[in-house]
Design a protein that fits this description.
The chain is α+β, with helices and mostly antiparallel strands. The chain has eight helices and seven strands; from the N terminus they run H-E-H-H-H-E-E-H-H-E-H-E-H-E-E. The chain has helices at 3-7, 27-38, 42-47, 55-72, 105-114, 117-133, 156-169, 184-191; strands at residues 17-21, 77-82, 85-93, 140-147, 176-181, 196-203, 206-214. The chain has a seven-stranded mixed sheet with strand order 1-2-3-4-5-7-6, with helices on both faces. Helix 2 (27-38) packs across helix 4 (55-72) and helix 5 (105-114) packs across helix 6 (117-133). It starts with a helix and ends with a strand. This is GNAT family N-acetyltransferase. Residues 78-171 form the N-acetyltransferase domain.
């Protein structure tokens, strides 16, 4: 899919914000944006054991390794840019089972070394449980979505959802996109874009909803 096609989702902010696929040079900034967005997320607090020393380092390492795995596997990573500044990020897993729980062994090994055995197992378990609840065979999964703190509350999240929709709708294999939501305000955010709750699941000590937007 071309970057121009993604841009079609951005009116009326077309003149100031653009959506394009991330490059390898963007990953460091993307990791920082995602860390700030997820450091207080109940799921990640639980998975990476915030009560134990080194939580921030484990989370940073896990996000970094996830982004590297997305890049190597050529999965869709979309960024919103204000001129040259990356201000929002979304990472999708395309409908390709080869990138599911069977992620590359080097990624799993690096995750074990950086995030720990428990965190690695929980990340993979989360993905498989979400997949089992979605009423489709081939679909995208939204793994991460975040807006830079300086740019929040300006509607950029919905612009990013529009760009995600464009990516999903242009993939003929995809029946839609799923996401796992643990915070009420995030549930309302996805509801606004026609995501529907298709099931509930518990992961360790955290409960949430699996939501799905069918194309």
């Amino acid at each position: 899919m071309s970057n121009e096609a993604i841009d079609g989702a951005l009116a009326p902010l077309q003149d100031t914000v653009k959506a394009i696929y991330l490059t390898v040079d963007d990953l460091k900034v993307a990791a920082s944006i995602l860390y700030n967005a997820y450091v207080d997320d109940p799921l990640f607090i639980d998975i990476f054991q915030a009560e134990k020393e080194g939580y921030e380092n484990r989370l940073r390492s896990a996000i970094r390794e996830e982004l590297n795995a997305f890049w190597v596997a050529e999965q869709p990573m979309i960024g919103l840019f204000d001129e040259e500044r990356l201000i929002a990020v979304a990472c999708l897993t395309a409908p390709d089972a080869a990138f599911g729980s069977g992620r590359y062994w080097h990624w799993r090994l690096r995750m074990l070394l950086t995030a720990g055995l428990f965190g690695t197992k929980q990340m993979l378990e989360k993905e498989e449980k979400v997949r089992s609840l979605v009423p489709a065979d081939n679909f995208h999964m939204l793994s991460f979505i975040a807006v830079h703190p300086d740019y929040q509350h300006h509607g950029l999240g919905h612009i990013l959802l529009g760009a995600i929709d464009s990516v999903v709708e242009e993939d003929e294999k995809s029946e839609g996109v799923s996401v796992f939501v643990t915070i009420d305000k995030h549930r309302s955010f996805f509801n606004d874009d026609n995501y529907q709750v298709v099931g509930q699941l518990s992961l360790s000590h955290v409960k949430g909803d699996v939501m799905f937007r069918r194309t």
